[in-house]
Automatic annotation (TrEMBL), chain A:
It holds the Pfam family GerE. The modification 4-aspartylphosphate is found at D60. It comes from the Bacteria. This is Response regulator transcription factor. GO terms for biological process: phosphorelay signal transduction system; regulation of DNA-templated transcription.
Automatic annotation (TrEMBL), chain B:
This is ATP-binding protein. Residues 372-460 form the Histidine kinase/HSP90-like ATPase domain. Residues 9-63 form the Phage shock protein PspC N-terminal domain. Residues 451-474 have a biased composition (Basic and acidic residues). PANTHER family: NITRATE/NITRITE SENSOR PROTEIN NARX-RELATED, OXYGEN SENSOR HISTIDINE KINASE NREB. InterPro entries: HATPase_C_sf, HATPase_dom, Phageshock_PspC_N, Sensor_HK_TwoCompSys. It comes from Arthrobacter terricola.
Amino acid sequence: MSTGQEPRTVRVVIVDDHAIFRSGLKADLDSRIDVAGEAGTVEQAIAVISEVRPEVVLLDVHLPGGLGGGGREVINASAPLLASTRFLALSVSDAAEDVVAVIRAGARGYVTKTISGPEISDAVVRVADGDAVFSPRLAGFVLDAFGTAPAEIADDELDRLSARELEVMRLIARGYSYKEVAKELFISIKTVETHVSAVLRKLQLSSRHELTKWAAERRLL
Amino acid sequence: MTTVPQRPPLVRSSDRMIAGVCSGLADHLGLPVKYVRLGMVLASFAGGAGLAFYAWLWVMVPTADESARRNARRPASPIAPAVSLGASVPSATTPAGTTHAAPPYAAAFPNAMAPDTAASDAGAPPKAPSGQVPVFASWFSLRRIPYGKEILLGAALLVVAAILIARQFGVNVPLGTLIPAAAILGGAAIAWMQLDETRRAGLVDKTKADQAGGWVRLAAGLALVVAGVLVMVSGSGSWEQMWLALLASVAVLGGVALVLLPWGLKFWKDLETERSARVRETERAEIAAHLHDSVLQTLALIQRRAGSEQDVVRLARAQERELRTWLYRDDAKDSGLLAERIAAAAAEVEDAHGHAVDVVSVGDAVMTDRHEALVQAAREAMHNASRHGGGAVSVYLENSDAGSEVFVRDRGPGFDMAAVPDDRLGVKESIIGRMKRHGGSATISSSPDGTEVRLRLPAENGDKAENRNEEGKA
């Protein structure tokens, strides 16, 4: 997915309150990515996103301005655009409540700021293609939140992960790339992406309040 | 004992008959408590001087607990030594004053032992908790009489009896003054004791049941004092006049309260604001101290070592880890658990080799000897991965009812297990052998894309591995 496709560029907007980080990130992104705009606060971000209409927004979770909701607020305000614009959350925070909150608001993935240049470019392209991007840590949160036991047949399917989804999440938590997961489980990368997207959907739609409670309670690393 | 003995601080002791004033004073002065009590009683007959002194000390001198707490509020010491390149866990997390760590003998020799206790420990009161006292009861026979309060009550009743008998024999005892005075004293004592206890309870925990009892006592004390004052002022015991006076005084009190209420509320609010501001200020000072000791030092170090990329990365990682621990750690909850031990091992390896070791953990388990072996094996695997992999290492820990599993993965060139010579103990002994001895297993898979060590420790009887995740859902 990441290579060998048609050479198209993805238009992105970078939202982060640190100018140094924005310029560093711009330098790191490879030629597949076209940075169409930047913003440093919640208000700026909402304005720039609605004006530029990028395919992907690289969004810091913690942002000044607005009502204090940070990245979540930006996503909520841009909700009408969610069909065409996808959000990839980017943060130094590993706090579970930050991660889960921004995913549940509608972000398609979550990566930490220590991610390398090629990796972040891959992640952007993947998100632009409609897939989800899970870091090992996010996979760990998912496993922690949904439990490591597979779903029963009659179980509410939104509240549990299937055995296959669990396997995929475990491998991602162990540091496997999608390609490696596919190889390990003898399935195609496309199937891996399907599973990951399904997990993301469950994470976003699951109504179990334990999920948010869980996130708020454990401020674990 | 070479230094001049220092006096223990003057605090009201928990070993008390009324308010602990006498025994606290005795500790402070180094006198046997019975003499102090006797002196206090004798002084009371000198125009009530003893009583006034007692009341004054009662109000002004803090209890041992309060004093300890006050001392414990001193600015916290730096949480962790700057960028300790060893994986040091922040120490000294328990405030000194909250533990009643005073050695038991300090209670028996309050004065002699003072240099050790009072000088070294900021908060430890020179009193042992009440449970330890009886051992030394033989030292001062009067010190800890069982039923002390009952005896006091008996003595008071005897005094009353003596007065009554004296009246029988025609001695003119000014009962009209004595009874209301006694009522006032009694009421005040009840209310003040109450004040002590609510203060303590309010600081420890606010249980409603205690408060209800407290209100009753406060009301009783108040009623006694009011009745005493009324009788004293009106000068006669007739009910008619009493009622009138009571009505009038209640009306006056109500009027005063009405007038003073807004002012009192404002005062209270100001007090609250000031208190919260002070709390914020303390917090800010603590954060500033921490940042100074850790982040600023690291930044300075980074500037000086800017030439060495590896040093900079190592410093940054170490600082990041330390800061995250400080920010997110809930040290009441997860100390000594498996996830934390694995994270500590990862930090150690990271410092040793300078490559990032990312730990993701799901669930947690209580440490046992077997888990200790798992941590050791995992540490060895991380060392190998970091040394030979030459890049970031991913560690994944999963705990479930079935047991604990650790995966350590690197992106190195990989190696052939069969080609490892037998005398290399690292893998064969420290990882595989160790896991086997503790009923677990270790598998290593290596390919040109990297190496993964998988450690498995099945649960013992299924109940040892406590899955916090499952627990949270229940």
